[in-house]
Write a structure and sequence with these properties.
By secondary structure, this protein is mainly beta. The chain has 3 helices and 10 strands. Strands 1, 2, 3, 4, 5, 6, 7, 8, 9 and 10 form a 10-stranded antiparallel sheet that branches. A hairpin with a 4-residue loop joins β4 (73-84) and β5. The radius of gyration is 20 Å and the shape is globular. The N and C termini lie far apart (64 Å).
Length: 218
């Protein structure tokens, strides 16, 4: 009887652990993600490359990437959306990609974060609403701490709305943002101040170059 109860407890613990693992996803989980696209049959601009009860991951198709001869490949930039079903919001992030034309209409794609230690490939990101419109901009920062703090690094993200660039918050991180759970990042959205300070000079946290190249207004 005791043994049966013990086995039941072990099963419940394993189930709880597996459930927690499945319910969380990090930006780093995209590392070395591989998939294929048929340029002839793929008509939509969004390709769902992963999906479960908690998250969907979308790859944004850029038709110019398909301008390759068969048997040739190239490196480039991929746009990927991590969409949380809990918060009904997504995070748009830029990655490195390798795209290879394997057959007439088949393109093999491999994604990489491009992160190195505290460095992130493109530190600018956007939080999207349920319709995939820009709702907030997000920027990842890191800097070396003072010698009194053993020469380590401080990491944080800044989030601001996209209307006037005045409302923002800073969230401290323990490590590179790519290792943070997507839902943990999005849980900070309600903390953004609602009141605008119209006397304050407001500027975007996203570089002009990034706004031009990655986050054009649609």
């Amino acid at each position: 009887m005791v043994l049966k109860q013990l086995n039941k407890i072990i099963v419940l613990i394993v189930f709880a652990i597996n459930t927690n693992i499945c319910s969380q996803i990090k930006i780093s989980d995209i590392e070395n993600k591989k998939f294929s696209i048929n340029s002839k049959t793929q008509k939509q601009n969004l390709v769902k490359i992963s999906d479960n009860s908690d998250y969907s991951i979308y790859y944004i198709v850029n038709r110019r990437d398909f301008n390759l001869k068969k048997g040739l490949g190239t490196n480039g930039i991929a746009k990927v959306i991590f969409f949380s079903k809990m918060y009904n919001k997504g995070i748009l992030i830029n990655f490195q990609q390798m795209i290879y034309r394997a057959k007439t209409n088949i393109y093999n794609i491999s994604l990489h974060t491009g992160a190195n230690d505290k460095y992130m490939f493109v530190s600018s990101m956007a939080v999207l609403d349920k319709d995939f419109n820009y709702e907030y901009f997000m920027k990842y920062h890191y800097m070396q701490s003072s010698p009194l703090e053993n020469g380590g690094y401080k990491s944080w993200i800044t989030i601001q709305d996209t209307k006037n660039y005045c409302n923002l918050i800073d969230i401290d991180l323990r490590d590179n943002v790519i290792y943070e759970n997507i839902n943990d990042i999005l849980s900070n959205i309600p903390k953004i101040p609602k009141e605008n300070n119209i006397k304050k000079k407001c500027t975007s946290i996203i570089y002009d170059m990034d706004l031009k190249d990655f986050f054009q207004r649609r």
